[in-house]
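Dear colleague,

Following up on yesterday's call, I've attached the two folding results inline so they're easy to grep. Please treat them as preliminary; we haven't cross-checked anything against experimental data yet. The first protein's sequence and C-alpha cells come first.
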Amino acid sequence: MKSLVVFLLFVVLVTSTAAQQPQTPPKKMSRIGYLSAVSATADKPRIEAFRRALRDLGYIEGQHVAIEYRYEPADFDRLTQMAAELVALKIDVLVTVTTNAAQAAQKVTRSLPIVFMGITDPVTAGLADSLAHPGRNATGVTNMAAILTGKRLELLKEAVAKISRVAVLWDPKGPGSIPQWNESQQPARDLGLQLYSMQVSTADAYEPAFKEAVKAGNQAVWVTLNPLANSNQKRIADLAMSHRLPSICAREDYADNGCLMAYGPGYAEEGRNGARYVDKILRGAKPAEIPVEQPMKFDLIINLKTAKQIALTIPPNVLARADKVIK
C-alpha cells in the first residue's frame, strides 16, 4: 500500500511538472494580429502579460511568432478597416480587445480564428452561441463587467454610507457598456440607490457631463468599462476628484490613475489567458469548440490618495478587505 501511494505521488508530481513546462511550439512561423479598441498606453499591462505568457508557452517573437498591432480607441469604422488590414496580412489568429474590436473583426471574417479579451457579454454581443459552446470562429475570456455591477455598487455604498444618488458613466455607443448600465438597475434598487444616466460618447463631453451630474444632485460615480473610458482614465478620475465625487471603477489601472476604488479582474490575468487561447488555436483547436472562460479572481483596490483629496475616510471594515491600497 505504501509503495502504491509513493508511486501515485510520483505520477502526480511528474504530470504536474510536465504540465508546467512549455511545449514545443508549431514549427512554422505563426502570425498573430492584435486589434485593440483601447489606446496602446492604456492597454500596455495586458499586452505585456500576453507577450510574457506566449514566451512562457515557448513562443519566441521573431522565431515562432510575429505580432502585428493595431489600435483605435474611438472610431468603429476605422476599427473595422484595421481588422480588414490584419486579415489581409494572412494572419493565423486575430486577437481582439473589447467588444467593439471583436465585433469589428467578425464583420470582416467569419472563418479566421478570433480570440477576444475585454468582453462584457460575448453571447449578447453576437460573438458566441453560448459560453460553453461558442459555435463560431471566436472564443476567449470575458471580464464579467455586467455581472459585477451589483458588487461594485455595494462596495461604493459601504465606503460612502450616506450616498443615495449615483451617476453611472457609460457609453451608449459602446456595446460592452450598455449591459453594464442595464444590469445596474436592480442592484441599485436593492441597495436603495437612485441611478443617474451619465451618457458620454466623446472625450470632450466628460467635463460638461460631470457638471450636469453634480447639478442633478449625484453624490458618487460608477464608471463602466468601455473603450472611451479606458483611454481617458486619468481625465475621468481628475474630474471626479475636482467635483468631490467618490468613484468606483472596474479595474486596477483605473485606481492607479486616481479612481477611488476598483473591483474586478486584472489586465494581466486576461492577457495570460488570451495567450493560452492563442496557443490552443495554433496547435489546431477550433474556436467554436473552446469554451469561453470567466475570471475566477477579483481584486479590490482602494486609492487612499484620492480619498484624502476628496476628504473621505474609508471605513476600516472596507479597508481591511482591500487586496491593494494605494497610499
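Below is the second protein, in the same order (sequence, then structure):
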Amino acid sequence: MIYLDYAATTPLDPAVRLGVERVLEVFGNPSSAHAAGREARNLLEEGRERVARALGCKPRELILTGGGTESDALAIQGVALAKAPRSGVSRGHIVSTRLEHSAVLTALKNLERLGFETTLLQPDSTGMIYPEQVAEALRPDTILVSVMAVNNEIGTIYPAKDIAAICKSRGVLFHTDAVQAFGTVPSQVEDLGADLISIAAHKFYGPKGVGALYLRKGIELFPLMPGKQEQGYRGGTENLPAVYGMGLAAEKALSVLVEESQKLLNLRQQLETRLLGVPDVQLSGHPTRRSPKHINVTVKGADGEGLLLNLDMMGVAVSSGSACASGSLEPSHVLMAIGRSKAEARASVRFSIGRFTTEAEIEAASRVFARAVDRSRLAV
C-alpha cells in the first residue's frame, strides 16, 4: 500500500514507539505520593516539558488532553463559559470561519444553544481568510476569535500572527487550531501569536488519543472535565505512555522541521505536477500559501466514490476530506465554502504526504491516479 493520507493520521515514529513501550512498564498513578507514583509523575512531566520546548512555552502553560478535538472544545467552550456575563441578553460573541474543523464548528454550535452568538467568516476561492475580515467582524461583546493555522482539507495557511495582533489590540482572545500545522510549518507560540493553541500528537508521528492545549498565563477557563489533574482544567488520570510519546514526537518534529518541510515541498510539487497533468483536474486551496504536505484536487466529470474505491483497490490510500467526516454522505463543507458544487466536492481527493513518503511512491501513485480517474469517469 502507498499511504498518502498523512493529514488524517501519521504512523508512529520508530523512536517514539520505543519510548512508549518503555514507559508502559511504569504503572504508577502520577497523582500518587509513593515511589511508583513519583516515578510516573517525573516521566509525565518530562513528556510535558518536551512538548513545551517544542511549542516554545512554559510547561505550566500546557494542559494535557485526549487529542485535538478535546483541545479545541476546551479552548472555545472553556473561554466562553468563563467569560460569559452572569446576566444580560447577550452571553458573548465569537468569531470563526466556515472552514474550521468539525471539532471547532461543533463547539460553536454547542455555545449557540447556550445563548452565545457566532460569526463565521467566508473564505475566498483559495480558502484564504484575511485579517481585515476578522477586524470587521469584531464587536464590543466579542470574547474570542478562533481561526485555524492550516486547513486540514486543502492545506491553506492562514495569517495567524496578523490575526492575533488585531485581537490583542482589541482586547479579544485568539485561539488557533494548529493540529495540521504543528510539525509541518513553524508553529511555536511566537510564530502564531495566539493565546490558546491546540495540537494532537498523532498528526506528528506520536500516539493517538493524546494532545495538548497551550493556555497563555492569566487566561481563565471553565473546565469541561472537572478534577484535580491539569491545574483543575482537565480531570482524570493522565495517559502516561501517550504523553511521553507525544513529548518525544514533538521534540523530533521541531528538530527536523526545516529539513523535512523542504523534502515534503519537493515531493508535493512533483505529485502536484503529475496530478494536474491529468485533463480536467483542478487544484483546491491556495496556490502558494499552502502546507507542504497537502494537495486537494477536484476531478471534473468523475464519480467521487468510485474514484476513491479505485485508488484504494489499486493500493493508494487517500481521503475525500477530513477523516472525522468519514462515512458522511454530505460533501465537504470546506470545498463548498470555497465555491465547489456538491458534485465537484464529492469528486475531490485529498493527497497528503509525510516523513516516510518516497519519490518512487509519488511516481507510482500518479500512474494509479490517472487510471482511477479514467475508470471513475466511465462510471458516470
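For the second protein, one point worth flagging: Residues 27 and 40 are 7 Å apart (CA to CA).

Best wishes,
A.L.
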